[in-house]
Design brief:
The chain has 85 residues and is mostly helical. It has a domain of 55 residues. It is built from four helices and no strands. It binds zinc ion.
């Protein structure tokens, strides 16, 4: 699984809506990729915050906005010199 694939599957994984096989691949990728792990932790916290703080479900579109924001963040951090190629 590539970093890009992980980002597109992440919210479904957090929702528990991802195929078993992809879950395994995603977890495997997270173990070996610090950058994705940080993004994943941030996303999980953000979604957890929404769930804990609001009595209603995450509005449609939040996932998409979040992913776009994270992708930008990932892109800018990947432009810096990283220890991981
Ligand atoms: Zn990655």
């Amino acid at each position: 699984m590539t970093c890009k694939t992980l980002l597109t599957r992440m919210s479904r994984y957090i929702d528990g809506d991802l195929e078993e096989e992809l879950c395994v691949q995603l977890k495997k990728h997270l173990r070996g990729c610090d950058r994705c792990k940080i993004v994943f932790d941030t996303t999980r916290r953000t979604i957890g915050f929404y769930r804990a703080g609001k009595p209603y479900e995450i509005p449609r579109g939040v996932h998409a906005r979040l992913q776009r924001a994270l992708r930008r963040q990932w892109k800018s951090s990947s432009q810096k010199k990283s220890s991981r190629a």
